[in-house]
Specification:
Number of helices: 7
Oligomer: single chain
Strand order of the largest sheet: 1-2
Helix content: over 70%
Shape: globular
Strand content: 5-15%
Largest sheet: 2 strands, antiparallel
Number of strands: 2
C-alpha cells in the first residue's frame, strides 16, 4: 500500500531530524575547546580558504562569513574574537584596502581542521561499509538531488523577498 505524500514528507522530516539529533557531528570535533558554533565558523573559514588558490587567498572577511553561514555580523565578530583568543584564527588588515579585515586560520586552526577531516572521513568510510556501495551511491544521488531542490527554493525565496522589498519601496 502506497503512503500518502504527507506521510512520506513527515517520515522524511523525522529521519532528517533523527540524523541531526544523533550527535555524530559532535564526535568528530578534534577538540572540546570549541563550542559547536565556533567549530562551524572555523569550518566555514577552512572550507572557504581551501576553495581558493592558496597563493592568491588573502583571507575571508567577517561579512563574507556571515553571508555564507547566515549569521548576523555581531555574532560572527563575537565568534571570531573567541577563536582568535584561543589561537585558531588571526585577523589581518587587507594590504590594498586597510579598512578591510581578513580572517585566516593559524597553524593551530589548520591542524584542528586537518584532524577533524580525518575523523570525518572515517565516519563516512564506516557508513559506506555499513550501507554498502550501492546504497551509498543511491544516498549520494538522492542527497545531491535534494540539495539542488532545496537550494532552488532558497533562491526563489530570496528572489521573492527582493521583489516584495522593491514593491514596498514603490509604495
Amino acid at each position: 500500500m502506497k503512503k500518502h505524500t504527507e506521510e512520506i514528507a513527515q517520515d522524511l522530516m523525522n529521519s532528517l531530524h533523527a540524523l541531526k539529533k544523533a550527535g555524530w557531528y559532535q564526535q568528530i570535533k578534534s577538540t572540546d575547546e570549541l563550542s559547536q558554533v565556533e567549530f562551524f565558523v572555523l569550518k566555514g573559514i577552512s572550507f572557504h580558504s581551501s576553495e581558493q588558490n592558496q597563493q592568491d587567498f588573502k583571507g575571508i572577511t567577517p561579512s563574507d562569513i556571515g553571508q555564507i553561514m547566515h549569521i548576523a555580523s555581531p555574532t560572527v565578530t563575537q565568534h571570531i574574537t573567541h577563536l582568535e583568543k584561543k589561537g585558531y584564527v588571526i585577523r589581518e588588515l587587507d594590504k590594498q584596502d586597510r579598512r578591510v579585515v581578513r580572517i585566516n586560520l593559524t597553524e593551530k586552526g589548520k591542524q584542528v581542521m586537518a584532524d577533524t577531516r580525518v575523523k570525518f572521513l572515517k565516519v563516512f568510510k564506516d557508513l559506506v561499509g555499513y550501507l554498502g556501495e550501492t546504497e551509498s551511491n543511491e544516498l549520494v544521488l538522492l542527497l545531491r538531488k535534494s540539495s539542488g531542490y532545496l537550494s532552488s527554493l532558497q533562491k526563489s525565496n530570496v528572489s521573492d523577498l527582493d521583489k516584495r522589498k522593491e514593491k514596498n519601496r514603490e509604495n
